[in-house]
Structures are given as C-alpha cells and as structure tokens.
Amino acid sequence: MLFPEFQTVELAPGALLLRGAAEACATDLLSQIEGVIMVSPLRTVVTPMGKSMSVEMTNCGDVGWVSDRTGYRYETIDPLTNLSWPAIPALFAQLANGVAAQAGFPEFHPDACLINRYAMGSKMGLHQDRDEQDFAQPIVSVSLGLPITFNFGGGTRTSPTTKTQLRHGDVVVFGGQSRLAFHGVGTLRRGQHSLTGPYRFNLTFRRAG
Ligand code: MD6
Ligand code: FE
Fold first, then answer.
1. In terms of Cα–Cα distance, which of 21, 196, 33 is closest to 113?
2. pLDDT digit string (tens) for 43-92?
3. CB under 8 A, 24+ apart: contacts of 105-109
4. Spatial contact of 58 and 115, defined as CB atoms under 8 Å apart
5. What atom of ligand 1 comes closest to residue 116's alpha carbon?
6. Which residue of 48, 85, 129, 204 pairs with 64 in a disulfide if CB–CB is 3.0 to 4.6 A?
7. What SS3 state is found at 29?
8. Helix, strand or coil for residue 176?
9. Model's pTM, two decimal places?
10. pLDDT band with cut points at 50, 70 and 90 for residue 6
C-alpha cells in the first residue's frame, strides 16, 4: 500500500513529510477521486468574507467540510446535491491509517476527507485547520499531480514560515504540537502531469467529530 521506501522530513515537531509515500497507489487514488466527483461534484465555495476560493472542492466521508457566508463547518449532507457525501473509499482509509501509524498516530480513523483541486493560479492562504473537535487527532494530507510550494508557519499568523515543495505522492501528517500551526500553499504554476494533466489534487483526512 505505502510506497516501500520513502524519506521522512520533519517540518516541525508533530509535522512530518513522508516523501512519495502515496506514489504507489496514486493511480488508484485518482480513479477513486473520479468516483467521488461523480456523486458530489467539485464546486467553488465562498468564505464567510464573501470571497470565492480559488480551489474547487468536494468531500467524502460521514461529514464534509463546507464554507459559505455563514461560516466554516462540517455537514452530513452535501449542500449541492442534498444527498449524503459518498463514503470514504477503502483505499483512502487504508492509506490514511497507514501513514498516520507511521507518523505515530496508530488510532487515526478519519470521518471526513476534503478533496481540493488546484488549477493554474489556484492558491490557499495561511490558515489553521480548527473546525474539528479533537485536536489530539492529526490531519493527513496527500498531494497528487502538479507540485506546489507548501508554506508552513507557527502558532500565530505572523510566525515565520518555511517553504517546502509538495510533489506527486507526498504525504504530510500534521499532529501534536503542529496540529494548529498556520499553513498554506503558493500559487499553482502552469504544467502538465501524466496522471492529472493541468491539475493538482490534495486530499486531507480529518477526524471531525
Ligand atoms: C494543500 N493543505 O496541500 C493544502 N491542512 O493543498 C492543507 O491545508 C493542509 O496539507 C492540514 C494539514 C495538512 C495540509
Ligand atoms: Fe489546511
């Protein structure tokens, strides 16, 4: 399941980058993403400030992360389809459990997986992931397709940031002391990837409830 040998980089205490850990299963992950998108399509959302996000997103899991004028939250029903979100595919769950265990979180059972698709020019500003109930649970993030710059900060919005390239198949586990660190990604540059064409996909697995 996991790529047999991968390099581990500690970005900060609790934040581990597992280089290429999802590469071996990337093709299968992408076909499962296609299946999710057929049920709960990618969409553009607005922030509580009324600005459109530049990434397109959808979810799978018992709950999905949503944003609109009233705020950020997890919802059991997809507001676009008025149906439940599709289930987390077994392969996603196995990957998330496997990498979390490698990173020292053996009991990670995500109930939400946010799927973000970046096109040329998409970016994500510095933010904290803090809409979940239990910050003892990590977040597992999987990058597929075109590379992007990951900006990793600290406990406040103005903490200094370090930059790391996230490439196809890379996995980041965010937990412990880094669970509430500010982070974001730079602007996706034009490119072509053999598996994703002009896009980058990011999966983030969370235990929301
Ligand atoms: C991205 N990632 O890689 C955005 N959040 O496109 C995140 O926002 C993120 O990589 C929480 C934990 C890990 C992440
Ligand atoms: Fe995040």
1. 33
2. 999 999 999 999 999 999 999 999 999 999 999 999 999 999 999 999 99
3. 105/137, 105/138, 105/173, 105/175, 108/137, 108/138, 108/140, 108/205, 108/207, 109/207
4. yes
5. 6
6. 85
7. helix
8. helix
9. 0.96
10. confident
DSSP H helices, the chain, are 26-39, 90-102
Q: Whose CA is nearest to atom 13 of ligand 1?
A: 141
Ligand 1 is surrounded, with C-beta below 6 A, by 116, 124, 129, 139, 141, 172, 174, 183, 185, 202, 204
Which residue(s) pair with 139 in the sheet?
Answer: 174
Rounded to 10°, the helix 90-102/26-39 angle is 130
Ligand positioned closest to the Cα atom of 143: 1
Which of 151, 178, 200, 202 is the pocket-test mutation for ligand 1 (most atoms within 8 Å of CB)? 202
